[in-house]
Amino acid sequence: MNVACDGPSGRGPWMGRVIRSQHISNLKYEGYINQKCTAPIIDLFNNEAISCSISECPTMPMIDDILMKAFARLDAGTNPVLHSDQGWQYRHRWYQYQLREFGIIQSMSRKGNCLDNACAECFFGTLKSESFYTSKFKDIDELKIAIEDYIRYYNTRRISLRFNGLSPVEYRLKSYPGRN
User: Domain Integrase catalytic, which positions (predicted)?
Assistant: First the structure.
């Protein structure tokens, strides 16, 4: 993706990805295996998880949920790029219409090239290794709470060497004082 990232939360490109992750697929529910899908939007300025949703399978209501959460965080007059893979959800007319309505520029990866979505893939790897490999969840509600808690931690407390020991939110606030 050849897009310059010129600012936080709504000014630079966002990355969206729906994946059926093996790690999330293998969460244990009372002794049996159940698949789940999760979809985050990552701000490429500071790697902050802007929004995330989880469901039984990738559906348009799931995508609507993450878009509405992300749109609520947009600064007025900004037109970020939302980059995704070529999943059916992102080629859907309704999805493209929603992006146009909010002034979002759509970008899609090349077919079969996971490197175009490296930031989202890295987020999933971090989520898996730091939170779920040894966890067991009784139901999807418990899983959702765990993911929400992890994202809160990831955004506000997990430091990054790339950002000189600051969390994604701290880096955004330091880079642009006075902005939420």
Answer: 4-176
- Structure tokens belonging to residue 112: 């079969």
For the chain, what percentages of helix, strand and coil (3-state, to nearest 5) are there?
Answer: 40, 20, 40
Looking at the DSSP assignment, which residues form a beta bridge with residue 40? 52
CB 73 within 8 A of CB 48: no
The tokens describing 51, both together, are 């929004």
Topology of the domain comprising 14-175: Nucleotidyltransferase; domain 5 (3.30.420)
Residues in the chain: 180
pTM attached to this predicted model: 0.79
Q: How many CB atoms lie within 10 A of CB 42?
A: 24
Q: Domain ranges in the chain?
A: 14-175
